[in-house]
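dude i think i finally got it to work??
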Amino acid sequence: MVASGDAAPGLIFLILYLGFFALLTTLYAQKKISWKSRYSFVYFHVIMRLGGQISGVIFSFLSWNQFNTRLNTLVAYLVLSAEGYFSLVLCSYRFLIVWQQDRFETSNLEPRIPKGTPWRQRWKMVQRSPMAAIEYMLIGANAIIISGGSLLSNAMQDPANKQHSISTGKALRVAGTAIFLALVQVFALVAIQSYRRKGDRTLLCIIAVWPFLTVRGAFGIIQVLVSTFSYYNPEIYTDDGIKPSFLAAEYILATLMEWISCGLLISTYFSRVVGGEVLLEDWQNEAKREKEQNDLEEGGAGGLAEDERTQVGSPRGGDELALKKSPTQV
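look at this
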């Protein structure tokens, strides 16, 4: 049986994420944002989410007569969904670091590395920063979540080890998601401290992702612990597809939370439109300082040349020139 009715929410969010994809692609094409900017992290999230939504839509159109294909599609959807949450948490930190470095000229999460720093010294500076530890924890949690999902999917195909696979898989998914959730709270703590020091509208947009990512993480844990919200629970499937209550919870508490968070981060590009201060990347500030230095040097050289021309054209300068030409007239 084809559960095409379940595809509607997936199609809606597929279109919404395509809107973000089109916007970012246009900004890249017009060179208004750079590939080495913070928006590349958001672009990665959008691509992961597009893949997840496509997998979800395909899953909805497959029947259980195609059990293996449908199961593999479900695993792809869950993995890409985990990547979506992982990338958003990472995005939030990267945006906060850019804001701190632009407003404070330093960041307590990652040091500002001067241009021309040797790569070995650069690597050491990065590895010793708090952000390096956060990134390693995010990567580890992401791997744990994917491993847990793989065990849960294998439990559906291997009845002999079903209970062990389910228990281990659930434990891994809860542990990984809990790490994500804890790091979201750390992000909020650092961001709020920064706002108290010198807040603005741009930082408010960044801080605003905190409650949405918190809800997303909490629901991720609930999905594992409460079978009513688990894709691996056979009871959520009916002859007409998937229970509407499950779909509503999945798309409101998970997908919508990520979409809103993604939109808030993208909105920092337009913060100056509503009176906010432009947020510049570290490499943009470096280029700005170099340009100002070059303009200053050119201005100084031009001023010196003008002084020399003025001196030669002055009466005194003319007298000195005459004296050099006719010393006998003295």
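The first strand starts at residue 237 and ends at 238.
im so relieved honestly
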